[in-house]
Amino acid sequence: MTASPTPSLTSSPEWKSLQKHFDAIKNVHLRQMFADDPQRGRTMTVEGSGLYLDYSKNRVTAETISLLIRLAESVDLQDRIEAMFTGEKINLTEGRAVLHTALRAPAGSTVMVDGVNVVPEVHAVLDKMSAFCDRVRSGDWKGHTGKRIRNIVNVGIGGSDLGPVMAYESLRHFTQRDMTFRFVSNVDATDFAEATVDLDPAETLFIIASKTFTTIETMTNADTARTWLIEGMGGDKSAIPKHFVALSTNAEKVSAFGIDTANMFEFWDWVGGRYSMESAIGLSTMLAIGPQAYREMLGGFHEMDVHFRTTSLDKNLPVLMGMLSVWYSNFFECETTAVLPYEQYLKRFPAYLQQLTMESNGKFVTTDGGEVDYETGMIYWGEPGTNGQHSFYQLIHQGTRLIPCDFIAFGKSLNPIGPHQDILIANVLAQSEALAFGKTADEVRAEGTEEWLVPHRTFKGNRPSNTILADAMSPRMLGRLVALYEHNVFVQSVVWNIDAFDQWGVELGKVLAKNIIPELSTSASAELNHDSSTNELIRRYRSMK
Ligand code: F6P
Q1: How distant, in Å, are the alpha carbons of 87, 108, 417 from that of 117?
Q2: Residue 185 CA, ligand 1 centroid: distance in Å
Q3: Do residues 272 and 357 share a domain?
Q4: Do 360 and 320 sit in the same domain of this protein?
Q5: Coil/strand/helix, residue 280
Q6: Where is the active site (predicted)?
Q7: Which of 76, 307, 360, 538 could form a cystine bridge with 48, CB 3.0-4.6 A?
Q8: Mean pLDDT of the residues in the chain
């Protein structure tokens, strides 16, 4: 299906107004903006779904925000949001609805896909997952030899791994501590070997997580897991049903692999891989935290969905964050955004966001097949604070590039020990303050610094950031946070008129790798027909085997 051509974004009056406005304010310092409007720290904030967003330390004025909102209106953002929630096939290149929001819709609500209400199916799978998790967690589900299952190994990659790992780490505080959770993603055998080195096969359950059940990394790891398990069971293949379950949309492939479809938890093609952590792909999460906490997480997702769908654009957290990203990407020409959680449990959140943001918005083709004449998805990266402060923050403070930052912090620690939390929070507040306001040469001099050192110790400031402050990490909070970024990504894609839900860019490498695999065999005799570099590297690799 092809969409009708859309008018050029950059020649729209809304874009041009923003360009003019940008030229007028691009050099205004945040010091000046705060001096001009001392209330900014109170007025440039929004609260929704338990998250407080302070966006006052951004290089924006009230006029910028209203121009950005006008741009959002000009691309019919509100209609596009509605189109997503109501199951329109907005994933144009794959002809699919995009309904991760249906995964967290409350029982009894209605979300139609091709004339069918999918909410009952979603809840049927949730119920099946809950019953299974209760059995495993209580010890009722036993391994083949009668031993209790104590180890869960999730085998998946991309969206079938990053969400589960991130959720497990984020919610570790709430996990059943007498169970061990491991995640195998890389086709590098070391990943599998290290994940299983100390596990007893009789106590181990493998979750094979793959939407398509064709991904070579996951299928290779799943084969290796099956061999490992059977060997560990003295060659008894009948052990498989008690030790393998599958999460997939592809029942045929699951069955061909040898997993009984009774042990399969399904999801649907209207759930994108990177939007699937609360589908059946969340089985490891549910095993870790239990069905009730899992449903609380879904509740958090849903709260943010409701906020996104119903709140006016200028008070809407994902809309504001998305439009600020457009502002920095397209007007300040920033290339990256740092996401910096001051919460150790969120240590894998930036890695998770990399797939969410970059696989979604790393596109140069518009929905109508044209080529953009503006930048699209920024590079997302980050590490938890305060660790990053002692590593890459130097560049954010004094480097030559402008890097907008998202700071994420919580009022309460789940491990309130001594002074740690105050020190942690003092640091996050100090970082955004230092980035915004810097330290002038005169201030440095006034401290008695020798003149030759003054330039080195000067901070220009005017480096933008958002601060998200919320109560404490919890399953519900995680749901809210993930949904915030999901919708933020969507907002950006609507402005850029790109399909945030396909990922054709990963295909070519997959196809080429399949061609190369047989050529790596030392007995391969066929002539190599790649470029001279690839040919030579293949020959060299063969000689190293
Ligand atoms: O890398 C491409 C991709 O299709 C991702 O979008 C997806 O999350 C990942 O591979 C894994 O796919 P699957 O769940 O089908 O194994």
Answers
A1: 10, 10, 48
A2: 11
A3: no
A4: yes
A5: helix
A6: 359, 390, 510
A7: 307
A8: 97
